Predict the structure.
Amino acid sequence: MDVKVTSVRQPQSSCPFKSARQKIFGLGYSLIIFVYEKTDNSTNRTATLNILHTIYVSAERTADFQMTRGIRNILDNEGNKDDLLAFLLDKNLPVDEIEADKIVGEIMINPPLQGFLTISNALQWRLQYGRVIERAGQQDGVIAVYRFNS
């Protein structure tokens, strides 16, 4: 499990890049995400942090939303290995064709669950949590542990 702390104004963080498979099959560990709102008081030179959300995301739901949605749609529409390979290459997944072909074989045997993060390609993954905040408590594996109601 990893703990992430992020501002409600821009709910995102960095994550070490291990493998392109993480974008499809998840990060390999669960997340607990604390989403805060910060208020500065320049007169007192203080700041107040209010925790607005605490969200648990199970490991199998930490994949990229659009990537897993596309894969699942292809499979639901009777897509084959060629369709999946074209999709992965079209999405600029950071892999060569040989690795992409291995991933497609794995997808055909073990299709990924729907992920709920937005994972941007970079030297590190950039994880964005907007969808997780919106859907906490409404999806299996995305649990609203705490939600501030004002």
Q: What stands out?
A: DSSP finds five helices and seven strands in the chain. The helical segments are 21-25, 65-76, 81-90, 97-109, 130-135. Residues 2-147 form one domain. The mean pLDDT is 93.
